[in-house]
Amino acid sequence: MRFTVCTTDTSSRETTALSLSFITKQVKGFVSRLKMEGIGVLVTCPMTSYLEEQLQNRFKLLRPWDSSSSSEFLGQNLPSVRAVVCNAACGADSELIDSLPSLEIVASYSVGFDKIDLVKCEERGIRVTNTPDVLTDDVADVAIGLALATLRKICAGDRFVRSGLWRDGDFQLGSKFSGKSVGIVGLGKIGTAIALRAEAFGCSISYHSRSQKPYPSYKYFPNIIDLASNSQILIVACSLTKETRHIINREVINALGPKGVLINIGRGAHVDEPELVSALLEGRLGGAGLDVFENEPEVPEELFGLENVVLLPHVGSDSVETSMAMVDLVIGNLEAHFCKKPLLTPVI
After folding, report:
1. H/E/C letters for each residue in 176-226?
2. CB neighbours of residue 182 within 10 Å
């Protein structure tokens, strides 16, 4: 590339310098994009079209499900795979990580990273990122939405009208949400956002967390059973760890009681699902609003016929706006890594 520069005064020289600076940046950006186009990015399962478009525009996008044999596909593309993009459903386990000798980074299209083998990544020096913060509001909104839908029987009422039953009699009344005692399991960013929303409904807030938080108006319970015993609505919003797996067990459910409602927007494995099902069928629990399940997309069929249960297909963070923001974070982290810049949202 050749430039001929003629200057006659200070102003024109400054303008030329700015132009050259702009051109230099553009050229460097173009060269960087060319270098990244050969980088293989393996997506573990179908995600949003916007994510795949953005990856396709920058990298060599690898989609195993496009091939009749995923193992054959991986075998052909192993040398070029330097990044994996996964989500809360399809992560990066030790088997996948071991099969990718050139892997440098795992970018999770999710705030959670329980489906990623972090120990294996640390052993190999593989970076891991997630998409925190941008989805906080959406998940908190859905938590309150599930509580309202479950208590006020919104979904059941919708079916009642659509089926024509309204002509035959009145709909069974639900219970109010305003003023209820709300217990939150995990008072992190999402848990705090839920608490703020519930406060607007005049709800009293209690919580169980690894440590007491600096919120004097919220009552802290170091024991989750005590929290459940003192809550009319129990909302699960903690991270999934070995310690929190099945944190909602039979004892906690019994403590919540036949008038209590369980809301889960965390992870399916937070709840002992068979115990939850039996408690609902036996009337030991008043209701449940569930966005997540232990073996997604499989859901216990016993729940389908229960009017006191509201079910969502793990869409707590899946608004159009938030999905795009999450994609931008995934792309930003990948570009930062391959441009040798600090990661935007590092896990390790």
Report:
1. CCCCCEEEEECCCHHHHHHHHHHHHCCCEEEEECCCCCCCCCCEECCCHHH
2. 27
pLDDT of residue 205: 98
Asked if the model's pLDDT at residue 30 lies above 50, the reply is: no
Averaged pLDDT score across all residues of the chain? 91
DSSP character at residue 83:
E
Identify whether 301 is a catalytic site residue. Answer: no
Phi, psi of 132 (to 5 degrees): -80, 175
In this prediction, residue 79 has a pLDDT band, given cuts at 50, 70 and 90, of confident
35-52 pLDDT per residue, tens = 588 899 999 999 999 999
Longest dimension (CA), the chain: 89
Question: Long-range contacts for 27-31 (Cβ within 8 Å, ≥24 apart)?
Answer: 27/1
Catalytic position from the list 267, 270, 275, 337: 267
Q: Which of 197, 208, 314, 337 is catalytic?
A: 314
End-to-end Cα distance, the chain: 41
Q: Write down the catalytic residue from 123, 296, 298, 321.
A: 296
Q: Does 210 participate in catalysis according to the annotation?
A: no
Residue 296 a catalytic site member = yes
Whether this prediction's pTM lies above 0.90 is answered by: no
